[in-house]
Amino acid sequence: MAVGSNLGPIPKAAFQVSIGMVFGLAVVAVVVRCFVLRVYIHKKKIQIDDGILFLATGLLISAIVILYQKTIAPGFYLGGFPLYNGQLDEIPDSMVQKSLDFHKWTVAVLMITWLSVCSIKFFFLAFFWKLVDRLPAWKIHWWIVFFFNVVTTIFGVLVFYVSCPHWDIKMYVWFSHKVQSLVLREE
What we know:
By secondary structure, the chain is mostly helical. The protein has helices spanning 12-41, 48-85, 93-132, 136-162, 170-186. The chain crosses the membrane at residues 13-40, 52-69, 105-128, 140-162.
């Protein structure tokens, strides 16, 4: 068994299976919506809202691939390493590099996942545009919601970078200063 696989509230295998099942359900829902309902039953062409849904699905697939390939194993390893080895007086260099790589890939997964979620919001907006395009009062509301979603999408992507802008060993120094300032503020 790998280091950290069963440490913490969720075992690694259970985490992978639960994420995989929810991901599979999302992909099945997209296939049913776009191909079965739209193309085979209603005999309609693929439209802009379907394209946005395909974009969201592609983003979700890429986030899940990165999650499984680059972040799950290092996350459980880094989370369980201190518990597995007892108290550490010094952090090994290999652990520092794994932590830096884990930070980069985790931020990538979070950004891509956020873009996938926001793409679903834009999918619903494109779908509702067809319903409100002849109602002027509702079109104003639609545009307000559209611009709000654009702002939240941009903010949601940038917040992962702004919260920790360092991608090298400076990340630890930056983080330790933030923790120290919070502790001093509390005292």
